[in-house]
Design goal:
Blueprint: H1 3-34, E1 36-47, E2 51-62, H2 65-85, E3 93-104, E4 114-127, H3 133-143, E5 147-154, H4 159-184, E6 187-196, E7 201-203, E8 210-211, E9 223-236
Antiparallel strand pairs: 1-9, 2-4, 2-5, 3-4, 5-8, 6-9, 7-9
Helix pairs in contact: 2-3
Length: 237
């Protein structure tokens, strides 16, 4: 047998062995899938929020873009200074929207006629002490903020609450799997697949939107963290 023929034979044997191994693995996986029940467990954890976010700012009008922009800059500077005076760090005040656009005569037929300009500056204000919400709102409004577009709450470190919810979600999944296994007349074995579904969900109440006139009472309530986990259990015949 030539060297070339020997190499071809060896290669063919290797290909056949690989194909047999692949088929064997596929059959084993199919058998495993046949013996697995997959269920989803869910759990929630309620946590008192310790962070608040205020979204608000100043909207001004002017006959020219410069007039509207200058007026806005003056009033927004006063708002930011008031927040800093309340002890809010500069890193917790972030500009999120800065715009200026023309205003058109709504009653003008045909070609639009510009009658002025509107400038808007919005910031996100992070409060690390939620007891200061009313004070921060009052300071913003007093300094010239004429639009508060939202107040929301969050938890700075949800890990402990989420870990407890994860345990509850696993217990919920096992409870469901046991019900199905008992109904089917089989035993429940070990968990072979565990997968958390996406990012843990944080339920937040709808943000309030209002025109600034006075600082309203704000209740932080509780945040609800949700966990969903999918687990595959072996079925024992």
């Amino acid at each position: 047998m030539s060297l070339m023929s020997h190499r071809l034979l060896t290669g063919s044997v290797a290909l056949v062995a690989a194909a047999m191994l692949t088929a064997s693995v596929a059959r084993a996986q199919a058998q495993m899938i046949d013996k697995v029940i997959t269920v989803t467990g869910e759990a929630t954890a309620s946590v008192a929020p310790d962070l608040a976010m205020i979204r608000g700012g100043v909207t001004t009008q002017g006959k020219t873009a410069k007039e509207a922009s200058d007026a806005n800059a003056k009033e927004m500077t006063a708002v930011i200074d008031a927040l800093k005076a309340a002890g809010i760090a500069e890193r917790d005040i972030q500009t999120t929207r800065l715009s200026i656009y023309p205003q058109q005569d709504p009653n003008k037929a045909g070609k639009a006629r510009i009658i002025g300009f509107q400038a808007s500056n919005q910031v996100n204000v992070k409060l690390r002490d939620i007891n200061k919400i009313a004070d921060a709102l009052d300071r913003m409004i007093t300094a010239g903020a004429n639009e508060i577009s939202g107040v929301s709450f969050s938890v700075s470190d949800p890990s402990k609450a989420l870990d407890a919810a994860r345990k509850d979600a696993v217990a919920d999944a096992k409870r469901k799997a046991e019900i199905y296994a008992t109904a089917a007349g089989v035993g429940l074995g070990r968990a072979v697949i565990i997968q958390e579904e996406g990012t843990p969900a944080l339920f937040q109440p709808k943000a309030m939107v209002m025109r600034a006139a006075a600082a309203p009472p704000v209740q932080p309530g509780e945040e609800t963290l949700r966990i969903s986990v999918t687990i595959g259990y072996e079925l024992m015949h």
